[in-house]
């Protein structure tokens, strides 16, 4: 078996930005208290089954609902429940359980796990993944036969493993897979194959990770169920809507989920969680999170208990001499973390700290520099094709200029990963033309990646205008067209809150 190369002509490659995470891993202390949101990852919020005063063990299920599309949620520490109440989390009012930790780090293992996982049935594997909480990972969950996804394991036709970091800052696969974890990843894949028996597996890896590609290829040489692909990292390859057409050569039903066409997309950390659940009995109580961005003095990869307050994770490592903006997972689309007392959850991969920089620069757009990034290659940093350690590009919150009129440069059109015409849509939405014209321009195909805003030399928030246009259309009663696809479990998807 050899890796096949796949290319993507659209999108944009972010190269040589400062603030990449360092090449080390540290386990951080267990915090004095954790706040566990009862909706994490894919699926509905689940009701609590503990109350204030209850003693709980790390790994114990504290919330579940086997009837709804959801996965159980666990305590990540040994300690005592001190509060169960509604909190505002990621812009939603949801219940959360606050637990005072006793500081011990052991955890309760899942019943029925086995290092000899080959002896487990597909149903036993599904049950372990469901009970571990790993079933909530990925944008469609992992189908287990226990309501963790909208489709059943036998309906999965393709599984894609996303191993191409395409963001400005990315968690390092090299760090994630060292110290024997590469083998855990390989076993995790084989466990998933036993569960999702009808599925073909496709593993997408960064083409520059040559050693990793060789090792994965060698480890999987004894089976023909796995295809391995190498891709150049280009944003936004981490969107299912982009990766599925490239790897499977089929269209994505925009406005729906990959599970509606029988495809499950998971990242490498999700496969490691599957391994830990089934072969080691470890529930999903911990994530590896990389600190990124010029706002951190040091940027290790950290082993973090779920529910740890963000301030517990970033303290002592963030710069004190600058005002910072903390962002979860993506500089282009991630949520700004305004309340650092709020917790990390199962979906965190990176915490990015960018210096707040609003200083106005006269004629900013006409001031090229070695440390600036530009789609049009008009800045001096373009001289260093693959980057330079001396002139690493900077990344702050400064827009470096005010919004100006569209100059029809078509940069936004060139990069748009779903081949729609952002500047046309922007002009209609800006003039408040909210009608079928937007549908004919395929506005609902927009995946809200914000790349159009990033490349726009006129500083127009093109992506935000398009998002507003979609919301206004829905308010006026227009629907996202299903495009004639034969879709699975659409009603279940719609019923998810
Ligand atoms: S139009 Fe949508 S999909 Fe295209 S670049 Fe802009 S935000 Fe991304
Ligand atoms: S990138 Fe900006 S200026 Fe250029 S066409 Fe798009 S909206 Fe207009």
Describe the model.
By secondary structure, this protein is an alpha/beta fold. It folds into 4 domains: 179 residues, Rossmann fold (3-Layer(aba) Sandwich); 69 residues, OB fold (Dihydrolipoamide Acetyltransferase, E2P), CATH 2.40.50; 70 residues, Ubiquitin-like (UB roll); 112 residues, Fumarate Reductase Iron-sulfur Protein, Chain B, domain 2 (Orthogonal Bundle), CATH 1.10.1060. 22% of the residues lie in helices and 17% in strands. It contains 13 helices and 16 strands. It has a 5-stranded parallel sheet with strand order 1-11-10-9-12, sandwiched between helices. Helix 1 crosses helix 3, helix 3 crosses helix 6 and helix 9 crosses helix 12. The model has no long low-confidence stretch (mean pLDDT 93). The chain binds iron/sulfur cluster (SF4) (2 copies). The site of one iron/sulfur cluster has 16 residues, from helix 8 and helix 9.
Describe the structure in brief.
Helix content is 22%, strand content 17%. It is an alpha/beta fold and 497 residues long.
Strand order of the largest sheet: 1-11-10-9-12
The poorly predicted ranges are none
Helix content: 10-25%
Amino-to-carboxy terminus distance:
43 Å
Beta-strand portion reads: 15-25%
The beta-strand count equals: 16
Total domain units: 4
Ligands, deduplicated: iron/sulfur cluster
Order of helices and strands: EEEEEEEEHEHHEHEHEHEEHEEHHHHHH
Shape by Cα distribution: globular
Structural class: alpha/beta
Tally of alpha and pi helices: 13
- State the CATH topology of the largest domain: Rossmann fold
Mean pLDDT over the full residue set = 93
Largest beta-sheet details:
5 strands, parallel
Query: What would you report as the Rg, rounded to the nearest angstrom?
Result: 23 Å
The CATH C-level name of the largest domain is Alpha Beta
Q: In CATH terms, what is the architecture of the largest domain?
A: 3-Layer(aba) Sandwich
């Amino acid at each position: 078996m050899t890796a096949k190369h796949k290319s993507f002509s659209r999108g944009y490659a972010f190269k040589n930005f400062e603030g990449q995470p360092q090449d080390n891993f540290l386990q951080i202390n267990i915090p004095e208290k954790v706040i566990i949101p009862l909706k994490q990852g894919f699926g509905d919020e689940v009701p609590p089954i503990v109350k204030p005063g209850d003693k709980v063990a790390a790994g114990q299920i504290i919330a579940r609902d086997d009837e709804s599309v959801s996965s159980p949620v666990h305590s990540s520490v040994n300690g005592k429940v001190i509060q169960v109440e509604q909190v505002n989390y990621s812009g939603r009012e949801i219940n959360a359980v606050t637990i005072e930790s006793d500081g011990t780090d052991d955890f309760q293992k899942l019943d029925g796990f086995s290092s000899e996982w080959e002896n487990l049935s597909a149903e036993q594997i599904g049950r372990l993944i469901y009970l571990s909480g790993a079933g909530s990972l990925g944008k469609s969950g992992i189908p287990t036969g226990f309501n963790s996804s909208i489709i059943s394991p036998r309906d999965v036709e393709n599984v894609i493993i996303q191993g191409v970091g395409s963001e400005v800052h990315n968690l390092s696969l090299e760090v994630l897979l060292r110290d024997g974890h590469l083998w855990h990843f390989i076993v995790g894949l084989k466990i998933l194959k036993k569960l999702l028996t009808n599925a073909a597996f496709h593993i997408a890896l960064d083409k520059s990770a040559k050693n990793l590609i060789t090792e994965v290829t060698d480890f999987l040489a004894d089976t023909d169920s796995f295809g391995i692909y190498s891709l150049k990292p280009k944003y936004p390859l981490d969107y299912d809507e982009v990766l599925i057409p490239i790897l499977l050569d089929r269209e994505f039903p925009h406005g729906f989920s990959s599970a509606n066409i029988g495809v499950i997309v998971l990242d490498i950390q999700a496969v490691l969680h599957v391994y830990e659940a089934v072969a080691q009995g470890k529930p999903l109580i911990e994530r590896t999170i990389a600190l990124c961005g010029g706002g951190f003095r040091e940027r290790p990869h950290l082993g973090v208990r779920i529910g740890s307050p963000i301030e517990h994770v970033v303290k002592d490592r963030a710069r004190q001499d600058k005002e910072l903006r903390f962002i979860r997972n993506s500089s282009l689309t991630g949520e700004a973390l305004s309340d650092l007392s709020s917790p990390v959850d199962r979906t965190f991969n990176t915490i990015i700290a960018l210096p707040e920089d609003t200083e106005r620069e006269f004629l900013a757009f006409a001031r090229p520099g070695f440390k600036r990034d530009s789609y049009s290659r008009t800045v001096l940093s373009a001289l260093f094709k693959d980057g330079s350690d001396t002139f690493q590009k900077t990344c702050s919150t400064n827009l470096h200029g005010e919004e100006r009129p569209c100059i029809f440069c078509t940069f936004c059109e060139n990069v748009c990963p779903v081949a729609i015409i952002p500047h046309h849509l922007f002009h209609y939405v800006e003039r408040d033309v909210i009608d079928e014209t937007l549908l004919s321009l395929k506005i609902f195909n927009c995946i809200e990646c914000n790349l159009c805003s990033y490349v726009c030399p006129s500083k127009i928030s093109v992506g935000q205008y398009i998002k507003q246009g979609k919301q206004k259309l829905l308010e006026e009663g227009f629907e996202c067209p299903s495009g004639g696809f034969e879709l699975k479990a659409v009603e279940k998807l719609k019923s998810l809150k």
